[in-house]
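Q: What structure does this chain adopt?
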Amino acid sequence: MHSKVKEQFQVSPPMVFFLIHAMQVGVGMLGFQRIVAKYSGYDSWIAVLIAGVLISILISMMYFVLKTNHNDIIEIHRNLFGKWAGGVLSLIIILYFYALGILVIRTYIEVIQVWVFEDMPTWILALLAGYFFYYVIEGGFRTVTGLCVAGVFIPSILFFVLLMPLQYADFLNFLPVWKHSVKNILLGARETTLTYLGFELLLLFYPFIKDGQRSQKWAQLGHWASVFVYTLLMFVTLSFFSEGQLDMTIWPTLTLLKVIEFPFIERFEYLGISLWLIIVIPNIAMAFWGASRGVKRLFSIKQRYVIIVMMIVMVFILPPLDNRQAVNTLNDIISQIGFWVIVAYITFIYIVQFIVQKIGRKRSS
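A:
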């Protein structure tokens, strides 16, 4: 069951920068500030940095496991826990990746329905999305990687535009620094960790990287580029909003875009939402690709058939989630599962692999 991938389907190590960064910078960027600030207030930028350090450590742990096995997480589960226990763990990871894709696409559809097309039925957008993502994922991993590269470069204009609200900034908000307790800042860091979700797909696409062991520096660079973007955005947000205003603002980033004015564009946030589509498409495509790839590896089913079933299920799942409370509940459930997947699960796999490797060395000596 070794997942040897032919060279023509692989990508070079520098592409891992775009794969990691594109997965981490997505729809969560639109509203993470409010959630983190509930706990950490004006110290939230510290929480973002602490979460960044934690994720960096987890990426190093993942590479230790991946380099040791030279394989993806499906085979690693089989080697470490056996066919049945390993299969159950793999199935949980697959369902998690699929749920992550559902979460991102439903959240973005909600943004479209609230800000742009208020009367647009969810099922129409779900049907269009299913048709689009089927053909994208059918194109293979290199196509999805190309989307990630585009998703980093094309919307980069927004990065500079989001600095424009600094003209209204009140930097006294940040003084004194670290006025919240360590507990509250760590709780804020936990919420920020949920925003960084997506990097764990490396566990599945690792065999698609040429000389995968040389790609760790690119994965770390991609992650720290995300940390830089989130920290700067949090800094701009905290300098613009009061804590009371931020608590009542569901999508602070879109509100910042609403403040920006150009003589030739009356409602800049509409352009921002359109550009955000290019940002979230790689998130969704990678999550669905990972889930379908996992099913293919676990059950030896053609990936094309898996994608078709997943897209049909998605079209039926999304319409019932038709209000803010339902979307919020979905966010909360998957976010909490995601936190335990990326922190507890990756740490657990690392410890098991470390113990197995130590036992193997003692036996061989």
